[in-house]
Fold this protein.
Amino acid sequence: MTAEYTLFDPTKNVTALVTTEIDPDLRAAAAAKIMEKEPACEQVGFVYTDRDGRSRLDMAGGEFCGNASMAAGLLFAPEPALRQPELLPGCSEAPYSAELYVSGTPGPVEVAVMPWPDGAFGCSVRMPRPEKIFSAELPFEGKTYRLPVVSFPGISHVIVRSGLFTREQAEKAVRIWCRELGVSALGIMNIESPVPGDKMIQSGAEALKMVPLVFVPAADTLFWESSCASGSAALGAYVLSLPGAENETEAAAVDISQPG
């Protein structure tokens, strides 16, 4: 069969969204074919309207993805809502906002789309709340590392200081830790920041540099991603969980720089 898809570029996390109805059992194979054809593509999702009239996005590996959710919001937005170039970045209301049901989450997420004068689009997604933030003892190459983990429905992320592992080691570790934690998808968020005392990250610090690595077993994908929305939310949630963060009124704003 032939699958029709559209490529989106949310902060260089290039995503293919398939609009052809594909049997769920064939989606992983279809995603592999698309990614073989599109070398820049980092992930594939399938969009459709279910029998109840709800807009849905199912990722190839059943994971949750914030960037793909924003792309799907743009795909579902009605054409008239995308023809308002007078709206500028920073406007409080977008012309299109809707609920989107995404794989890996028990309920809908809210996505909004706003056209910009330069022909691009501003998109936002209200991320699910983390289910838990905890420290885990994670084994790797004969050692045990105590590292923070932020778990969302559909994906979890380990926060790691850049330089702790080489890229090759991180690619091995993410597979091992995904099994160790028993999660359906796992990211390693490599962070560059000052290390005050024994803390990896200081709440309220200047912009943090993050390089995301994401492993999705069901889709058999492992990527050093250009950007990761759920990883960004995980890092923000972790920073807010640090001692003293609850007393800092500015702690809700965390600037994160990523390759994309």
Notes: The mean pLDDT is 86.
